[in-house]
Amino acid sequence: MTNPSLLILPGDGIGPEVMAEVRKIIDWIGDKRGVTFDVSEDLVGGAAYDKHGVPLADETMAKAQEVDAVLLGAVGGPKYDDLDFSVKPERGLLRLRKEMDLYSNLRPAQCFDALADFSSLKRDIVSGLDIMIVRELTSGVYFGEPRGIFEENGERVGINTQRYTETEIERGARSAFELAMKRNKRLCSMEKANVMESGILWREVVTRVGKDYPEVELSHMYADNGAMQLVRAPKQFDVIYTDNLFGDILSDCAAMLTGSLGMLPSASLGAPMANGRPKALYEPVHGSAPDIAGEGKANPCACILSFAMALRYSFDMGDEADRLEAAVEKVLADGVRTGDLSNEEGVKPVSTSDMGDAVIAAL
Amino acid sequence: MTNPSLLILPGDGIGPEVMAEVRKIIDWIGDKRGVTFDVSEDLVGGAAYDKHGVPLADETMAKAQEVDAVLLGAVGGPKYDDLDFSVKPERGLLRLRKEMDLYSNLRPAQCFDALADFSSLKRDIVSGLDIMIVRELTSGVYFGEPRGIFEENGERVGINTQRYTETEIERGARSAFELAMKRNKRLCSMEKANVMESGILWREVVTRVGKDYPEVELSHMYADNGAMQLVRAPKQFDVIYTDNLFGDILSDCAAMLTGSLGMLPSASLGAPMANGRPKALYEPVHGSAPDIAGEGKANPCACILSFAMALRYSFDMGDEADRLEAAVEKVLADGVRTGDLSNEEGVKPVSTSDMGDAVIAAL
Ligand SMILES: CC(C)[C@H](C(=O)O)[C@@H](O)C(=O)O
Ligand SMILES: CC(C)[C@H](C(=O)O)[C@@H](O)C(=O)O
């Protein structure tokens, strides 16, 4: 049997620092659990642009297609703000999503009990919050053609196209229903079927797929109302299924409800490969945080928890994932805090590396 | 001199009830201030569909084009859920917006001090909140062509088109900058320029228009981050300018921060007419609330405050608008509450009509 393989793309900003902590955990699992990962590392985003003039080299793309899972840190930074659209750091990430065909983006919005007071929302509104947002990730207005800036009647016009085929809506919906089956069996689908025909088709296809999951209670909500309801009473939701653009906004809104962005992981999954594992990329929800990069202040938990998702969804190591998540929760309960989570009086923030060590100690 | 003219479209659900309170105030202004409005009334939404088979009759559309301002209650209801897309109640509203060319939608998100505890957010995060969202209302993915559900490679595909010309972006931007000049001189423009070419053009045009307003501090934010920042620290914003679809979602998110949707008005403004007044439609942000329609429980304040916006933006009666707004605030401070705002112990909710009377008494 070959070892499970992992491509690590630390990327920009705090990406490398938080990823260093994940590598400690990978090593720990090799030592203590006897599961050795074949780890390779490469560049993405601004780091790749600096070396190759593109935010993702073809060789890196090819590697990503071959490994069992990709783990990404973060991309972007002010240094790259003036680059042309086609070579911006984000394009590296978007290329990975598209070419690996990672259509199902899982974004848990979970409020850790020890951190509920960091939320801008009242404690009782968010404590115990545990939503899973499934965002369609390879289609919609992110990739639809025609797109671009064109000349028309003597002025320019910016065009993007929202496009969803039945197949695209359906495969994402199936992954959302499957998740709902393992959770509280409630799925809310969000679109703007009152305004957009693509939303009408979305609602129709999700309803049809729902017939295969009679145990799941399916509801539909307009995306604007969805944003309201997330703010008003987020605990009403279990799984939310929505498109690429709505998912971008609604999942960020949901993430911020928890008040601790530095804690939130994500998984982007595609179709099963020959070995039965889904194509997969894991990344923290937070960005590259250039303002604190290199200072050892970043919170590595989101990246560590992204690796926990990899253990669960790519490597059939659900128990190990549970243990890793429990270790993170224990560390928080013990009051260990990186700078992003230590505005309480008298709590001294620990460094990125101390946080990683604390998680390992808790394991 | 002719009287100022007003077309009232109560619409569906609680629309007629809340509008009845506005009519009391219009009468009061006629009596006490000697300003008589020529008021006509007509149907929109489901109510128009029931009578004419369309959610807005051509004659009503023609009337709307002629009056100084339109005041709309709300449209929609479960009775109309299964209607064809083309005759749904919402289409009546969208037709008004499009044919009157109401490109600038002003949505204040204001937190009334007496109501700050209704917010799901902590008091200190929202008390004193006063944001103005300017949403482009006549273009973007709401109206772009091609649109529809098409057959392609043996399956259906739902298509909508995001389309913005420089002219469209610019005229909305000017109205946003003008508002910022009258407020705290800060404008944040939101798009997804990292993903969408239409967002790139948006950012470029807004930046260019900003050169004409050197006193206004202009910033740009990706819309997903915008959603996060609205939840995290909404008071950082003064005026926000964004497109039709982002505006739909972000303004609803912002509205819900205040916790009292029943209080929020909106204005949709177009180009100046021959008499110098802008084409204008005013409507509450809340919907038709079919669950409580006809029971006298609805909060008329959002509709009353929409009329206050009409006084300010259509009729040059800013002082009268200030007085009306102050009257509403006084009534709230006195503890008068409709059902939506009375979950406090010992507070007995008043009826829609009592609330209207209380506002008049405070005037
Ligand atoms: C970085 C950016 C391209 C990306 C997106 O818009 O999808 C990010 O916001 C995300 O949600 O992962
Ligand atoms: C009713 C609907 C068509 C409308 C919109 O999407 O614009 C509403 O949500 C709004 O924001 O005014």
TrEMBL record, chains A, B:
Residues 5-359 form the Isopropylmalate dehydrogenase-like domain. Mg(2+) binds at D224, D248, D252. Transmembrane segments: none annotated. The record marks Y142, K192 as: Important for catalysis. Binds 1 Mg(2+) or Mn(2+) ion per subunit. Pathway: Amino-acid biosynthesis; L-leucine biosynthesis; L-leucine from 3-methyl-2-oxobutanoate: step 3/4. Its cofactor is Mn(2+); Mg(2+). Keywords: Amino-acid biosynthesis, Branched-chain amino acid biosynthesis, Cytoplasm, Leucine biosynthesis, Magnesium, Manganese, Metal-binding, NAD, Oxidoreductase. Catalyzes the oxidation of 3-carboxy-2-hydroxy-4-methylpentanoate (3-isopropylmalate) to 3-carboxy-4-methyl-2-oxopentanoate. The product decarboxylates to 4-methyl-2 oxopentanoate. Homodimer. PANTHER family: 3-ISOPROPYLMALATE DEHYDROGENASE. This is 3-isopropylmalate dehydrogenase. The lineage of its organism: Bacteria, Pseudomonadati, Pseudomonadota, Alphaproteobacteria, Rhodobacterales. The gene is leuB.
